[in-house]
Amino acid sequence: MSGVTLSIDGPTASGKTTLATGLAEELGLAFLDTGVTFRSLAYALEHEPVEKLRTELGSLLVHQPEIHHRRRGGGIRQPHSVLFKGEDITQKIWHSSLDGNLKSISQDQACRREILLLHQRIVEKYENIVAVGRDVAVTLLPRASLHIYLTADQAIRRERRRAQYRDFGDRSLAVGPATARDLENRDAIRAMPNALEIDSTYSPAPVVLTAALRGLRRYAA
Ligand SMILES: Nc1ncnc2c1ncn2[C@@H]1O[C@H](COP(=O)(O)OP(=O)(O)OP(=O)(O)O)[C@@H](O)[C@H]1O
Ligand SMILES: Nc1ccn([C@H]2C[C@H](O)[C@@H](COP(=O)(O)O)O2)c(=O)n1
Q: Do residues 187 and 45 lie in contact, with contact meaning Cβ atoms separated by under 8 Å?
């Protein structure tokens, strides 16, 4: 299949990255996790003022989406590497001490605009790509081949995240209910003709992957 673009949205720890990785491996897609940009900027905010991050985002931060994902470091999610001022910070962006910065970056509309421009430049480079994160269906890939909204009960999402990070010290564990933004995005995706909603609460990852591939075949046919 060529010209395959997929967007995956959904609340925290619903399995977006897991599904995207499976799809990327199965279909040979590039993989962009937009949450990584937000987390990288939360890290960068420790070192640079937000004004500089906004205006020099493109030169400060370099994403390296991988065509064939490799999970490194024993289960901690590291979808692709990211450089900040030339330094590989992939390992450093998953820490609860950055949660306050993460909130500031997420709520800064000027920052969000610059992040979107950065992501648009990245996706333009790839004919086949899966992008993950809040609002990617609406803002980044509105013409994707398939838009997936992935859900799971909050208690299950929290448990999965705990298990994922159990052995890795102080990592960000916050898993709240679906936010107003999550629900807004879900409703926007539901209104799209080529959308697929998957509840993974009782479905293991391979079942979710199969459902997504089936959905893609239906819409790509
Ligand atoms: N269908 C599933 N069944 C059971 N466990 C799953 C399933 N999907 C993902 N997981 C596990 O749940 C955890 C969270 O998954 P993942 O990191 O893919 O979620 P996410 O939505 O990308 O999270 P975030 O909101 O931080 O971006 C991981 O440990 C993953 O292995
Ligand atoms: N397109 C996006 C991606 C991420 N965010 C926010 C949401 C979270 O607070 C944070 C980290 O995302 P995660 O790694 O958990 O997917 O970034 C957003 O607002 N828009």
A: no
In sequence order, what are the residues at sequence separation of 6 or more whose Cβ sits closer than 8 angstroms to the Cβ of residue 44?
53, 60, 61, 84
For the CA atoms of 4, 27, 154, 89, what is the dihedral angle to 10 degrees? -90
- CA 152/CA 128 separation, integer angstroms: 27
For 185-208, the pLDDT digits (tens) are: 999 999 999 999 999 999 999 999
Domain count, the chain: 1
For residues 3 and 98, give the distance between their C-alpha atoms in angstroms, rounded to a whole number: 36
pLDDT at 167: 58
| Residue 155 domain boundaries | 5-220
Question: Which ligand has the nearest atom to the CA of 136?
Answer: 2
| Angle formed by the axes of helices 99-107 and 109-124, nearest 10° | 90
Considering every ligand atom, which ligand is closest to the CA of 76?
1
As a whole number of angstroms, the distance between CA 134 and CA 186 comes to 10
Could you tell me the distance, in angstroms and rounded to a whole number, from the CA of residue 51 to the centre of ligand 1?
33
Q: State which of 18, 31, 34 you would mutate to test the pocket of ligand 2, scoring each by most atoms of that ligand within 8 A of its C-beta.
A: 34
> What is the per-residue pLDDT across 90-108, written as a single tens digit (0 to 9) for each?
888 877 788 899 999 999 9
